[in-house]
Amino acid sequence: MSKLIFSFCLLLQLSSSIYALEIGLQGAKENFENYSILNIKDKNKFLCQEIKNDFGEVSKVICAFSKSPSKKFKPLQNDFFKIKTQIKKKTFFLIITPYKKMKLYPVVFNLSKDDEVYSADVKLSSSWMLVGYKKKIPFMYKDDPSPMSINFPFFLSKDKLPYVGSLDMKGNPVHIKNVGDVSNYLKIKRYYKEEKYEKCLDLIEDVMYEFPSSLFTAELLYYKIRASAKLNNDDDVIDYSKIYLREYSSDENIAEVLALCARSYSQNGLNSQADYFFDRLFSEHKDSPYSKWGYIYKGEMLEESGGFKKAVMYYTKALRETQSIETASTAAFKLAQYYIGNGQKKDASKYVAKIIKAKPDFFIGEYESSLKMMDLFADMQVYSSAASIAKALLDSMDKRDDYYETLLKNIGIWLSQTTKKQEALTALNRYFEKYPDGLFDEEVQIAKDSLFFDNNDANLSIKIKTYNELIDTYKDDSIGDRAIYEKAKLMRDNEMYNDVLESKDTLLNLDETIYKDTKEIVNDAALGAMKQALKKQKCKRVLNISSEYAISLSDDWDDGIYECAMKGADFLLAKKVIGKNLNSKDIQMRKKWLYRYIKVDFATGNYSDVVKASQELLVLIKDDKDSKYKDVYRVVFDTYQRLEKNKQMIDAIVKLEKEFGKSYKDIERYVAVMNIGSQTKDDNLVLRYGEEVMKIQKKSDSYAQSPFVEFTLYQTYINREDYSKALEVIESLDTLELSKDDRARQKYLLGTLNDKLWREDEAQVAYKEAIDADPTSAWASLAKDAKE
What we know:
Layout: H1 2-8, E1 12-18, E2 21-30, E3 33-52, E4 58-65, E5 76-77, E6 81-88, E7 91-98, E8 101-106, E9 116-117, E10 124-133, E11 154-155, H2 180-193, H3 197-210, H4 217-230, H5 234-247, H6 254-267, H7 271-284, H8 289-304, H9 308-321, H10 325-341, H11 345-358, H12 362-365, H13 367-379, H14 383-395, H15 404-416, H16 421-434, H17 441-454, H18 460-473, H19 478-493, H20 497-502, H21 504-508, H22 518-535, H23 539-548, H24 555-567, H25 571-579, H26 587-604, H27 607-621, H28 632-643, H29 646-660, H30 667-679, H31 683-700, H32 708-719, H33 723-731, H34 740-756, H35 760-773, H36 778-787
Antiparallel strand pairs: 1-2, 2-3, 3-4, 3-10, 4-7, 5-6, 6-7, 8-10, 9-11
Helix pairs in contact: 2-3, 2-4, 3-4, 4-5, 5-6, 6-7, 6-8, 7-8, 8-9, 8-10, 9-10, 10-11, 11-14, 13-14, 14-15, 15-16, 15-17, 16-17, 17-19, 18-19, 19-22, 22-23, 24-25, 25-26, 26-27, 27-28, 28-29, 29-30, 30-31, 31-32, 32-33, 33-34, 34-35, 34-36, 35-36
């Protein structure tokens, strides 16, 4: 029975320990049926009990412990058990639930120590075993004993325990007379690990000759194949692999041998034979790590024969599926080689970055290929990737290596061409520390000086100071020229436009073939200075800059200049700007500048021009209800008012009302029309606009036009003998704050109106209030006369 277990059990174990509690979970197979065993042990005895359902099947097992664990126990499970914990009243419980079937057994006896065993039905035990199974419990069966039977113990002496010693691959006993092959086998493994492949092969030959029937024959042949593969002895790999595959077809190393054999065939140009072994590897051992190596080897074969797209597919497949960093790094390196060889810099850089992140020391193992790839990146100006490879090589290299100084120099110079300026500075300083009188000190010094131009964490003033020092130190030198250029750019970018203009002569003297945008920098500075002058309303400064630097004033600048001129009341300048835009073919531009023309003429008193231009603008905006130039209607009214053209004022106010409705903005214009009505004895005009003014004032709670409006309306209503309306208007002033004279006038008018309405008592009261409001006023005098 034990032989059956060793033949068919595939063991997976998971254990957990809590104080003295041990839990072991194992999986195995018997007659192609999976089962699982759960062992629970403690130094103290504890209770485990089966809980059965209505069908007599075990639905759960509960084990109780007197102590709680110090750490939290994480739930465990497999295909047969689910184990969780619970604490109630300081008692710790393990609850085991089956996914299939389950049986609980106490483990009472230790067969390695106890001489006798018997059937024990116990409640407490320090060790319990649960068996999870599908249909039939493996290796065990239970007879139902007769109730009349006696439970005799079974005695088993230790010296009579069955014992089987070491067996060879065929199941025969192994008689080890000499351990020479054992020690040599260990030495072979050491040689292989130390990459001493020649020594490894020599020792294998000696051992196989001296011990032809060695227990390690399979392992010796296996290492012979591996060492030969490392030495690229492809014929030997093929020959040894054939023997191995024939003699040891079930060995655990078959997948690796298939991969190496296939690779050797492909390197010998025997692709059809290689494909046979690749197919075996991918179909029979698809989950093996060596199938992923097989993808790489097949990719190499395809790439060699021109199948580049398929090769990339296999490299990518290896990279995605492998769990091995070494395999992934190799696949990524192959992809990087392919892409850099095809000029696809971005893709190549991506895979180099993956290697750098996962296994930077990989590059030293591919030294020559890595150097070639590094130089290709540098040639393509992908300096970041080139520097990354150089750094990875440098970190794995002996400092006495001949190429060490060159790599250290290249890292600093290449990084100086990227955005990683601080890393570049560190590398360049490191070069000077290691090689004060190095071969490349001049080249490195230039690269270091260049760093100050575009990567310095200092503030603006310190940067400018640094540039000034470089300019002084490297006069008539390319570094000094670069400092002049970079300083000008820095000042421009920080809006120090006037400073740029002050140094423009030095900047413009630089070599135009190297510094091609110096004129652009100066022009940018001039434009920037112009903007700053506009913001500060320094209009003459704007014009001076424009004239000196031949900057044409575009429409964008005209807006600013116009506003600047209007704020400064420089109407000549404003009109000059307007003049060049007034006849624009762009209808929107024409509207804007025509409106501005009207505003300037109105401000300067050119009313006839205002009228003429307004007529044109009104035609342009008549169909645009939301035009931003509708304010021209008000300008037209105000112009006619200044020209004292009453009829045109009335026409203008009607159009203005149509466009804006009743607006507080126009209240003074309504009062102006009321005056026209008063002057021309047009009561309707007075009443219409007087009432509107009163409504607008009441709605806005602002009475700037009172009491003029009310007195004017009052008189108009009196003229029309509409005393009730007159009374309503004059009494509305009661709630407003008036001057003493206006209050006396209001009360006097109220008194006279009450007299007309035969309200003598109210009239007497009003007269008295008029007198009290301002006794010295003319209205008080009239009130006294009326009162008497």
